[in-house]
Specification:
about 325 residues, Aminopeptidase
């Protein structure tokens, strides 16, 4: 009998979960040199943060056997970022893992009134992908569906030479900062609905709306010179938004509405953004694209982007 609890943990319980984490990841791609003390502090931080929900599993003797956590980024959707659940690999460890996943599902519906629980798995090495197969089996057994696989790409701005492109007649270049969001979200939806972006397409209409609001939220810091829009006849038809992630510029979202594709506008927008980043002193830039979006990959590789790692997304909806 496995019991899952979502209460905040004391320091002693956090240390027990830290020891489980250290033991469970030993000899795996997740193995690290972090001490039990450092892992304990991280678990304590997660347990105390209201943006996270930590769930712990105990056996019939009351002994802690594993844990998982999800975080709330915005309404309707909760996210698991990483190789969770982490369980004591003795005995009925699969039952512990499945109990934690099922409890997470129940938790987001009953406590959070959410409609989607999403897990992101990053594969910096082949060993990480191989290790993830066990977790994917657990999540699939619990009803999760595959959403998308993406490639994280990076371009060395110092090494690339960027061509000169003229803006085609009839189009105007605008800054993201100078255009109201209600002019952007509609074209953003049409762009992504008619794309190969599997993650966006796996969402409900309401979830897509929240995602678009997140993409074009001006309260989130962005790089003004590298967040550019294309306008034609008073309507936005293309966009590239660039923000900073871990001290590096990150492009996304990026796209064109269907009726203006095939005119070289994507190259024009991307090159303008890359030039502006390079002029401002940035030495590299990164972005994500779906593995099946071959036209986008071809465009990005043309301007120096190379694969860094892959990641997969799975989701569950009640």
């Amino acid at each position: 009998m496995i019991e899952v609890d979502s209460k905040k943990l004391d320091s002693e319980d956090c240390e027990v979960l830290s020891n489980i984490t250290k033991s469970a990841t030993k000899g795996t791609p997740l193995d690290s040199n972090r001490s039990v003390e450092d892992i304990t502090k991280e678990i304590e931080r997660i347990s105390a943060d209201d943006k996270f929900q930590l769930l712990s599993a105990s056996d019939e003797k009351g002994e802690l056997r594993g844990w998982t956590c999800y975080y709330i980024a915005f309404p309707l959707m909760a996210f698991i970022n990483g190789f969770y659940p982490i369980v004591d690999m003795r005995g009925d460890y699969e039952q512990v893992a499945l109990s934690l996943i099922e409890a997470s599902k129940s938790n987001i519906v009953k406590l959070r009134k959410h409609s989607r629980l999403e897990i992101e798995l990053e594969f910096p090495t082949k060993a990480h992908r191989d290790y993830s197969k066990m977790l994917v089996e657990w999540y699939t057994e619990c009803g999760f569906k595959f959403a998308a696989e993406e490639i994280h790409m990076r371009s060395n701005l110092i090494a690339i030479e960027l061509p000169e492109y003229d803006l085609p007649q009839g189009y105007k270049l605008r800054r993201f900062s100078g255009v109201p969001c209600n002019m952007i979200e509609g074209p953003g939806r049409r762009t992504l609905e008619n794309s190969k972006e599997g993650l966006f397409l796996s969402m409900s209409h309401a979830e897509q709306t929240i995602t678009l609001e997140y993409f074009f939220d001006k309260s989130k810091p962005y790089i003004d010179d590298a967040s550019l829009l294309l306008e034609r006849d008073g309507e936005i038809v293309g966009f590239v938004i660039t923000r900073v992630n871990d001290d590096e510029p990150e492009i996304g979202p990026v796209g064109l509405v269907p009726e203006v594709r095939g005119q070289g506008l994507a190259s024009y927008l991307l090159v303008r953004v890359l030039k502006n980043l390079k002029s401002s002193g940035s030495t590299s830039v990164c972005l994500d694209t779906t593995i099946t979006n071959f036209p986008a990959q071809k465009l990005y590789r043309k301007y120096g982007f190379e694969d860094v790692y892959h990641k997969q997304f799975y989701y569950w909806s009640p």
